[in-house]
Amino acid sequence: MILTRIFHSSLGKKYIMAITGGAMFLFVVAHLLGNLQIFLGPEAINRYGHFLQSNMEIVWPARIGLLIMIGLHIWSAISLAAENKAARPIAYVNTKTVAASYASRTMMMSGLIIFAFILYHLLHYTVQAPVVNLKHVDFRTLHDPEHRHDVYNMMIIGFSHPAVCAIYLIGMALLCLHLSHGVNSMFQSLGWRKKTYGECLSKAARVIAALIFVGYASIPIAVITRFLVQK
Amino acid sequence: MNLTLKVWRQKNATDAGAMVTYKADNIIPDMSFLEMLDVVNEDLLLRGEDPIAFDSDCREGICGTCSLVIDGIAHGGQRGTTACQLHMRHFNDGDVITIEPWRAKAFPVLKDLVTDRSSFDRIIQSGGFVSVNTGGTPDANALPISKLDSDESMDAAQCIGCGACVAACKNASAMLFVSAKVSHLALLPQGRAEAETRVLNMVRTMDKEGFGNCTVTGSCEAVCPKEISLDFIAKLNREYGKAVLVNRAERQNAGA
Lengths: 231, 256
What we know:
Strand order of the largest sheet of chain B: 2-1-5-3-4
Number of strands of chain B: 7
Shape of chain B: elongated
Helix content of chain A: over 70%
CATH superfamily of the largest domain in chain B: Alpha-helical ferredoxin
Number of helices of chain B: 10
Strand content of chain B: 5-15%
CATH class of chain A: Mainly Alpha
Helix content of chain B: 25-40%
Order of helices and strands of chain B: EEHEEEEEHHHHHHHHH
Number of helices of chain A: 9
Radius of gyration of chain A: 20 Å
Largest sheet of chain A: none
Oligomer: heterodimer
Structural class of chain B: alpha+beta
Radius of gyration of chain B: 21 Å
Shape of chain A: elongated
CATH topology of chain A: 3 helical TM bundles of succinate and fumarate reductases
Largest sheet of chain B: 5 strands, mixed
CATH architecture of chain A: Up-down Bundle
Distance between the termini of chain B: 69 Å
Number of domains of chain A: 1
CATH topology of the largest domain in chain B: Fumarate Reductase Iron-sulfur Protein, Chain B, domain 2
Order of helices and strands of chain A: HHHHHHHHH
């Protein structure tokens, strides 16, 4: 009965959106902190990559967990959006946008582009399919002197093509847009928002979204501007 | 003032309807928007045409009956104001003004600008009752309520149920309305006893009536003539979550 009230009600589906979105947001933060180690040089990031890859107990639960999160997030988004569309069968002839931010009106669009980006990102660095990196390098053959997978040089080669760099920047810009509304909304949907800190929360969401963009964008930009070079 | 109106005309609930252009001449700036429509209607009657049907009752901004989307904004865009309290001085001579009914599956158009908002009544009905003991009038202050709680409850109770929140929401969601109705009782001890069953039932009815879902755009709050805050939607989400987790309604039905 509790499950029916969550999976079959508008508010319950928003809880699912918020909880799965929140979990993926935490992953996005952790993933960023992990990746920023590229600025510490090959040793730091290769050791980190090796640590993750050699611990199946960490990698697989995380992967399965994320898959469930993204699946539920997309399922509830589609289900809610279909209801929203059905709720107004006849559109207005003249309609003006009042108060609603651009990000809040385009969550479905930004979400779908981010999903397409994730698929590309997985093919690029997880499956490591040589066709998508546009450099025709097989990342699986890269190893550092300590016979670990050479994550450092993989990222440098991976981001050295301008088109790939552009895909990442666009993906991260849309993630920033999505989070600027999403991080705030998840508190609202779970009822964890009050007048006293509500305004602070909406501003914090935008600042955090911008920081995430700056953090992620810094890596391909550092590569394309040759701040980071192959070692 | 001379104005051009583009008004949604629809003979009945099954008619397709269309926008029709009318001239509104010699309008006095101190007229309310509805008085302006009255003038146009008198003119239509004199010409033997069907007058424009629109809802109105108190015409002083407290009943929630008037319901016009004026130039793409529910109630016309003056903050904290119903359409009946919007005056023609806010428009300019020569303006072209579009007037449409609330648009939502749960608010079907009956005629022209008149919609059937009984879905709101069914949500209220499903909210049930508040337990009040019979007998003599209770002593004043026998039930202590903090000023903060009573103020917040009264803020929510200001909702006049006009439906502008639904009209303005891109998803035609009734969350602001339901949140106001759930909150004003949930904030007071008299309303706490049935708070859980109330929120569960009202949300179920809201979903059944075919309203959309909240995507936190804030449009509802911006057009609400009573300036009901988006914070009440957070409160509704919180109340619903608590009711689902505590699940007292289920336990009561099971006789536990």
